[in-house]
Amino acid sequence: MSKIVIAFDSFKGCMTAQEACHTAATAIREMMPDAEVVECPLSDGGEGLVDCVEKRLSVRRVDLKAHDPLMNIIDTSYVISDDGITAYMEMAATSGLTLVPDDKRNPMLTTTYGVGDMIIDAAKRGCKEIVMGIGGSATCDGGRGMIQCLIDNGYALPSSNTHHPTPNTHIPHITVASDVTNPLYGELGASYVFAPQKGATPEQVRLLDERLREFAKETESLGLAMPSLAIHPGAGAAGGLGYGLIAYLKAEMKSGIDIILSISAFDDAIKDASLVITGEGKSDMQTLMGKVPHGVLKHSTEHGIPVWLVSGAIDDSDNNLAKHFALVKSINEGDNRPLATLLQPSVAKENLRKMITKMIYTYRMRDSFAR
Q1: Cα–Cα distance for residue pair 175/49, rounded to 1 Å
Q2: pLDDT confidence of 365, banded at 50, 70, 90?
Q3: Which of 14, 134, 222, 316 is most buried when burial is the number of CB atoms within 10 A of its CB?
Q4: What is the DSSP letter of 112?
Q5: Cα separations (Å) of 36 from 26, 39, 252?
Q6: Is the Cα dihedral 212, 216, 249, 135 positive or negative?
Q7: DSSP labels for 256-310?
Q8: Which stretch of DSSP H or E encloses residue 8?
Q9: pTM of the model
């Protein structure tokens, strides 16, 4: 009997990781009733991290009111381990792009203030550790908003002469889960690479980059960072929030997918598997730079298991993906309808179901022929 593991990231705007895994798994079970199909929804540190944690660990969800990217008060949440020690949260829960209407997206104005709200809430609840996914941001403030929130609420920052620690202002140790390796500023930095996706005009991109450079100089003058921190891989994550977390809160940055694979006990899940299927919204040259499919590929290859890559869109002009994955397919292959139609959840799910069905049919025929 075959064992097939389904390990998708979310298809942003179309399907959550759980929905994608379930859609594919259902298609496989219809084609191969005797197969063991394991659903393993994943995240690389962006949206979906908390859902993955809830599925795998014993946690409880906590609700709070916090500031959104435009400083409106919203209801949001994160989860805490049952022992009360570790909080798992996503910066996108308060400062995510999806919280800002299309016509109001402007990273000159959006803020990470709400991230500070979540950190404070976890601290007040007695948490000692925070694991924070920082994907999907609407911001490009270097974490200034988060820092200001902490200061406004009496939380001391390292090396500050004007704010002194007081009882109950201990900030938990923070582990940052991220797949981004960009520096804080420059042509490959937070502004030039990501701000246009958040609504910035070319002129605003230039101004935002200047702001981040000034922020780095200010931080260095406070003795909180060396110039090298600005080019540290991941400093530019979430509009520079990675830099702010490391410099001001002494956070530790780790690969988001490695954290999730560990939490998900992925190596145990793929034991004795004959095939692993992974995918994401769009796969391109960045996929092999720490995205979910790359983490899945790395671990599966170590066990000698072939991996199929099935994503919403595929950009593989250099055939780099095809060199690593056993099979690479877009769920929209042959579907020439407008992108807006393809992004509809019902359409995406149906196209994923059809593609998986087609691929599994070929897989079964090849397997039968081999026998």
Answers
A1: 13
A2: low
A3: 134
A4: -
A5: 12, 10, 38
A6: positive
A7: HHHHHHHHTTHHHHTTT-SEEEEE-SEESTTTTTT-HHHHHHHHHHHTT--EEEE
A8: strand 3-8
A9: 0.84
3-state secondary structure of 151: helix
Indicate the helix (H) or strand (E) that contains 63.
strand 59-67
* Tens of pLDDT, residues 29-41: 999 999 999 999 9
CB 78 within 8 A of CB 89: yes
Tokens representing 10? 């979310």
Q: How far is CA 188 from the centre of its chain?
A: 19
- Residue carrying the six token digits 């995918």: 279
Provide the token pair at 200: 């910035």
Residue type (1 letter), 306: P
Those residues whose C-beta lies under 8 Å from the C-beta of residue 24, and which sit 6 or more positions away, are 6, 8, 277, 310, 352, 353, 356
What are the CB-based long-range contacts (under 8 Å, 24+) for 298-304? 299/261, 299/266, 299/267, 299/270, 300/270, 300/273, 300/276, 303/267, 303/270, 303/271, 303/273
Burial of 103 (0-12, 13-18, 19+ CB in 10 A): exposed
* Amino acid type, 161: N
Q: Where are the alpha helices (DSSP H) in 108-143?
A: 113-124
Distance CA 65, CA 88 (A): 17
Distance CA 281, CA 213 (A): 32
Q: What's the confidence (pLDDT) of residue 12? A: 83
Is the separation of the CB atoms in 174 and 119 below 8 Å? yes
Q: How far is CA 254 from CA 43, 233, 258, in A?
A: 13, 10, 8
In sequence order, which residues have a C-beta less than 8 Å from that of residue 164 and are 6 or more positions away?
A: 156
